[in-house]
């Protein structure tokens, strides 16, 4: 009895294989170029912050300093101004993010229960209206003044407590959760808060991580509210101190290091930039994996 052999698989044409290889190479080169363009400014700033006066005196600054030194960082951190500003920014960012997440998630959950919560549709329309219309600087300043929050950290948190965009994203994600899960929890005797805490929030970790990062980056990067509402320089966050170093050229740390040779102004400015951006850069990779799942699931209705 003769054995039947399987027909040979049709081989792909050579030109198709060459085209696929060429496409892969093009993608790799394109991504490499984009990554290089994005990393070059940061590496250049880091190189300048580690350079000496002799390195800066040359015609150009290389990405790898010839005589690397941490003198600029020592000078900045020894003064106490930057350290205090970093502590202020960390506290404002952490507290503001936590409070904003609590307010955003609870309001978003209430807006998904249009039948159980009277007036929720009207509130949703008011929230969406803030995406189109917003008050100017003077009305916001007068509001903060009448609330008695001038020269206080509350002025950095309360005006941007809830973002309408983040609220819409979280609400849409909550609406995609099957009603059968919440109905089963209610049949078992769970109340609204228990359903929200034990069912809704655990299933929404992706979108919550993304929205928390949005709030954190916004609070960490904000300097305009501090410039308007804070008159006490000891309460300034790191971004406002960075503004003094970079834009106005004020070397605050140098004034507290009498008798020691000061590093070049350019290295001090770039060192403050690195210190101000490093925390967000370190946190971002841990939350990056949630971006695709969180944003897409919250923006597209299933």
TrEMBL record:
Q: Which residues form a coiled coil?
A: none
Ranges for domain ABC transmembrane type-1: 86-287
Under the heading CDD domains, the entry gives: TM_PBP2 (cd06261)
Cited InterPro entries: MetI-like, MetI-like_sf
- Which Gene Ontology biological process is one annotated for this entry? transmembrane transport
Query: Where are the bilayer-spanning segments?
Result: 21-46, 86-110, 122-141, 153-174, 195-220, 268-287
How would you describe this protein's topology in the membrane? Multi-pass membrane protein
Any one annotated GO CC term: plasma membrane
Alphabetically ordered keywords of this record? Cell membrane, Membrane, Transmembrane, Transmembrane helix, Transport
What is the annotated localization of this protein?
Answer: Cell membrane
Q: What is its main location?
A: membrane
Q: Which family is this sequence assigned to?
A: Belongs to the binding-protein-dependent transport system permease family.
State what protein this is by name.
Carbohydrate ABC transporter membrane protein 2, CUT1 family
Q: What is the originating organism of this protein?
A: Actinopolymorpha singaporensis
The taxonomy runs: Bacteria, Bacillati, Actinomycetota, Actinomycetes, Propionibacteriales
């Amino acid at each position: 009895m003769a054995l039947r052999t399987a027909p040979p698989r049709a081989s792909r044409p050579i030109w198709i294989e060459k085209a696929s290889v060429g496409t892969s190479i093009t993608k790799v080169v394109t991504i490499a170029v984009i990554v290089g363009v994005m990393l070059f400014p940061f590496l250049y700033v880091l190189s300048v912050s580690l350079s000496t006066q002799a390195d800066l005196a040359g015609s150009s600054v290389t990405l790898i300093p010839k005589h690397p030194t941490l003198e600029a960082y020592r000078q900045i951190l020894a003064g106490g101004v930057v350290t205090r500003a970093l502590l202020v920014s960390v506290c404002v960012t952490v507290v503001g993010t936590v409070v904003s997440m609590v307010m955003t998630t609870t309001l978003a959950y209430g807006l998904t229960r249009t039948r159980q919560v009277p007036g929720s549709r009207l509130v949703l329309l008011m929230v969406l209206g803030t995406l189109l219309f917003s008050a100017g600087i003077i009305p916001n300043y007068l509001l903060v003044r009448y609330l008695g929050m001038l020269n206080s950290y509350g002025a950095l948190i309360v005006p941007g407590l809830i973002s309408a965009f983040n609220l819409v994203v979280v609400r849409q994600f909550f609406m995609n959760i099957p009603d059968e899960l919440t109905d089963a929890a209610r049949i078992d005797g769970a109340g609204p808060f228990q359903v929200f805490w034990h069912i809704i929030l655990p299933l929404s970790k992706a979108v919550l991580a993304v929205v928390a990062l949005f709030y954190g980056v916004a609070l960490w990067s904000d300097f305009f509210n501090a410039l308007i509402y804070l008159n006490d320089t000891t309460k300034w966050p790191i971004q406002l101190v960075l503004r003094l170093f970079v834009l106005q050229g004020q070397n605050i740390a140098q004034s507290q290091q009498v008798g020691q040779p000061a590093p070049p102004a350019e290295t001090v400015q770039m060192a403050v930039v690195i210190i101000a951006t490093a925390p967000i850069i370190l946190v971002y990779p841990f939350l990056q994996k949630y971006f695709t799942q969180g944003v897409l699931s919250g923006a597209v209705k299933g």
